[in-house]
Amino acid sequence: MSRRGLLDAIVVGAGAAGGAMALALARAGLDVAIIEAKPPRSWQPEGEMDLRVVALAPDARALLAGLGVWPSIARRVGPYRHMRVWDAVAPGELHFDAAERGEAALGWIVENMLIQHALFEALAANGVGPGRIDVHCPARIAELDNGEDAVRVELEDGTRLTARLLVAADGADSAVRQRLGIEVDGREYGQRGVVAHVATARPHQGTAWQRFLPGGPLAFLPLGDGRCSVVWSLPDAEAARVLALDDAAFRAELGAALDFRLGEVTAATPRAAFPLRLRLAERYLHGRCVLAGDAAHVVHPLAGQGMNLGLRDVTCLRGVLAAARARGSDIGARHVLRRYERERRSEATLAARAFDLIERGFAPPFVPLAAVRGAALAAAGAIAPIRHLLADVAAGRPPGRLAGR
Ligand SMILES: Cc1cc2nc3c(=O)[nH]c(=O)nc-3n(C[C@H](O)[C@H](O)[C@H](O)COP(=O)(O)OP(=O)(O)OC[C@H]3O[C@@H](n4cnc5c(N)ncnc54)[C@H](O)[C@@H]3O)c2cc1C
Prior knowledge:
FAD/NAD(P)-binding domain
């Protein structure tokens, strides 16, 4: 620490975004404290898989590999080499193939809990150097002073921390964001994502399957153990009905909803459901505090991008702070953090609005839009550069790379 007692950064929240942020900043040589409200849930390799999974894009995997946590995560991942997207009420199908792009996989299906567990183990080991990481868990902020020269925090147990900047990665209902008075824009989708793990009569073929249905998209994501993780976005009342079905009826409806592409659904775990919302913070920066992950943006899961966007926040802030440090600038200065805000807010807003537009196409009064969507799918599927562009966007690569293809 350059000044006695002064940290470089305080990170609030040790979910995927906060955990990766603290590790990435420490790895870049910063002294960091991380504050997490809940002790981590334990993850057992022989335990049943967490119902919440994410499709990690290649850039997210590269970040986690660079942080040294991928080997722990790779113990239980499902890589997918193909993705098939089609519509229930319109023609057309999109097919993405990793081989066409010279890559091993388009993405990896991973349990949220495993990502958090691997990050937390690395944080607790504090072995990522050269920066230092102090973990405060379970702990919460009692007082926050977002001062001109530094951020000062007092935890509920009386611990005091001072840093050049603070990163709020405390999730969709971010208490720090509320404390800073940052408003959010967005809406409730009136939908829930029903999730379960299922076995199917036919193998998933390392393919992520997504069918657009009038009520919302249904995804079958390939797990490493041969089963699929289902994410079925449904209007609230429909979700309640589907959650109440007995096992046999649920499996029958699910198989039909995927048009039996994988045959009958032969077994299913208990189900859970998550409310789906759009939330975009009006700003990501306030004084020396920035927002990251779901604290800054919550998007519809139809494109599987929420956590990927949060991990891109990490890559961006790490780069911005490293550049500022190399120039000898104050890393918590407004002009430095403003670069992060500009870059990340524009990408997340574009992504969120695009997913929102697609989602609106499913709302019952707009069912005819499915025809447009079907035509767009057919056209995009037939034109290789457009297909590549969509795959690049999903993978977090700059679409400009397509120019030479
Ligand atoms: C059904 C569904 C499917 C999804 N599928 C995908 C997908 O395929 N791909 C994808 O990329 N994303 C997906 N997402 C989104 C993804 O799950 C989230 O974007 C991601 O988990 C958010 O991570 P986070 O670290 O920002 O927030 P969180 O995971 O919410 O972590 C926040 C952390 O902060 C802590 N915290 C909260 N309050 C405080 C406090 N006051 N003080 C200290 N700590 C605090 C919490 O305990 C928690 O550990 C999906 C979401 C849903 C609902």
